[in-house]
Amino acid sequence: MPKLPEVYKLNTYELPRRAGEMREYELDIEVPEKVGVELIAVPAGDVIEVDARLESVTEGVLLSAEIFAVAKGQCGRCLDPVELVIEKRIQELFLYEQKVERKKRTPVLDDLDSEDELLMEGDVMDLESPIRDAIVLALPNNPLCSDECAGLCPNCGGKWAELPENHAHEVIDARWAGLAALAIDEPDFKN
Ligand SMILES: [Zn+2]
Ligand SMILES: [Zn+2]
């Protein structure tokens, strides 16, 4: 069995290394671990579809891709299940390794966003970080079942949408609760 992150790797040996050459790939990536944010993510075992177009350019391989996936999570207010269809276009340049070697000899270029650079590993492109970034950016940190979701009653946890209109609890206002406590404490204080 391949190592888990291998599912994101695309071998591009069919793409001639001549500027202008192009190949298209349809990938179904079954993700070994969830991809997303805390409250909503593409769950482990689900499939991310990637329609990728690879183009040989002088410096490396240009990836243009459309990503389709369904993220599943919970409404941040009422905890109902939420599903979100993700459709995202990405474009990334993967540099040939030897081009990077050459760039490294130029100290000025070396400092320029070298950490964000994507590198070919021989013929292999690792699509994990571009796909992960695209999906994370497409997801809300606080997913809602609807913008109007009223959430839950803080006292009983009932869903406001399902509770009767006059739903209320007998609660003592926090300020009066404080006074009541004082009133009880006071006789002790005098004794
Ligand atoms: Zn909700
Ligand atoms: Zn309640």
Report on this model:
InterPro entries: YceD. The protein has two domains: 4-138, no CATH class; 160-190, no CATH class. Helices cover 21% and strands 32% of the residues. It has four helices and nine strands. Strands 2, 3, 4, 5, 6, 7 and 8 form a seven-stranded mixed beta sheet that branches. The N and C termini lie far apart (78 Å). The mean pLDDT is 86. The structure holds zinc ion (ZN) (2 copies).
Which descriptors apply to this entry?
191 residues; 2 domains; 7-stranded mixed sheet; two-stranded antiparallel sheet; 4 helices; binds zinc ion
Structural class: alpha+beta
Helix content: 10-25%
Count the strands?
9
Question: What multimeric state do the chains show?
Answer: single chain
Pfam families: YceD
InterPro entries: YceD (IPR003772)
Quick overview of this protein structure:
The protein has 191 residues and is of the alpha+beta class. 21% of the residues lie in helices and 32% in strands.
Architecture blueprint of SSEs:
Layout: E1 9-11, E2 22-30, E3 35-36, E4 40-42, E5 47-56, E6 60-74, E7 81-95, H1 97-104, H2 107-111, E8 118-119, E9 124-126, H3 128-138, H4 174-190
Parallel strand pairs: 7-8
Antiparallel strand pairs: 1-9, 2-5, 3-4, 4-6, 5-6, 6-7
Bound molecules: zinc ion (2 copies).
